[in-house]
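Following up on my earlier thread - several people asked me to post the actual chain instead of describing it. Fair enough. Here it is, all 173 residues.
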Amino acid sequence: MDTGAIKRSLERSGLRCTPQRYAVMAFLLQHNRHPTAAEIFEAVNRVDPRSSRATTYNNLRDLVQAGLVREVAVEGRGARFDAKGVRHHHFICDGCGNVEDIEWYDVPRPASGSLGKRMVRECELIFRGLCARCAPRRASGPVPQARGCRRERRPTAGAAGGDSANRKTRMDS
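Reply from S.P.:
Thanks for posting it. Predicted structure:
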């Protein structure tokens, strides 16, 4: 996307085209690796150090709300950001946290009445598992525990008797 196209997309979405907002949008369109807000802040400020961390985060929030950028939630890690372009789903690796694009395909709508009075705006799939790099490493190691399974945490050395590490907790890993 060229300079004019970025400016027009911001303006069509009701956003002013500030230098900082333009820099964030341009960076996301040039990099499809789903960076974190901190990575975007660092990269944008290497080129033009005029943007504060708060400005970068606020611009990301505004771009998400305007529908130009998607926020991809990665459990236990910082959210990742993706410039909307071609519709696609995501695969998130449980091992390294890498986020990969998966080709889009339509998801069947829920059965009539199953959502009650909820109104669906959008539906996307997020696949979770081990990426091509992490899967071979885990093949010989312990099998990852299924989501929602309970396991007891062992107290660490020197933990107090009433410490939360001694309680059974739900692990989502």
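The CA atoms of residues 24 and 60 lie 8 Å apart. That should answer part of your original question.
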